[in-house]
Design goal:
Helix 5 runs antiparallel to helix 6. The protein has one domain. About 80% of the residues lie in helices and about 0% in strands. The radius of gyration is 18 Å and the shape is elongated. The chain contains 9 helices and no strands. The protein is mostly helical.
């Protein structure tokens, strides 16, 4: 066993790691709900008509970025919990993909309308938590908790 892996981690490592796991699972659930929701499901929601209208114009590259962001984030947090340094790079990729998937939210009026007046809230939360995940994983790597 390498010296790096002999370093024990405290409870905070596990608490933050599990919280990040829950956050990333939430992102994956949102992605799956978005992909499997029918037009009828969307129409039953607030801004439903705008959400249905945005489906037809939301670019495939943004959808691909959404998938990379959420599934990459999930893999990143799993690698963090497995104490692998790879998590740092995966969190960076996840955040970059998230930034790309938010481009239509701010540049396409139809997509912006689907989000309602608070269309900007989730992107801000995602970016802040994405930056935190990168910082946290880099810190854990610097402390020798990741190999």
């Amino acid at each position: 066993m390498s010296e790096e892996m002999k370093t024990t981690v405290g409870a905070l490592f596990w608490i933050v790691g599990i919280a990040l796991l829950v956050w990333n699972l939430f992102g994956c659930a949102i992605y799956l709900m978005d992909k499997f929701a029918t037009d009828a499901d969307l129409l039953a929601m607030k801004n439903g008509e705008a959400m249905v209208a945005s489906r037809g114009v939301y670019p495939i590259w943004a959808t691909a970025a959404f998938a990379i962001a959420v599934w990459g984030g999930l893999v990143a947090v799993v690698t963090l919990l497995l104490r692998m340094r790879l998590s740092v790079m995966l969190f960076v990729i996840s955040l970059v993909a998230a930034l790309i998937c938010f481009i239509p939210t701010f540049t396409m009026p139809v997509v912006k309308a689907a989000g309602g007046n608070t269309y900007w809230v989730m992107p801000v939360i995602v970016v802040v938590l994405g930056l935190f995940q990168i910082w946290w994983s880099r810190r854990q790597s610097a402390l020798g908790h990741l190999s």
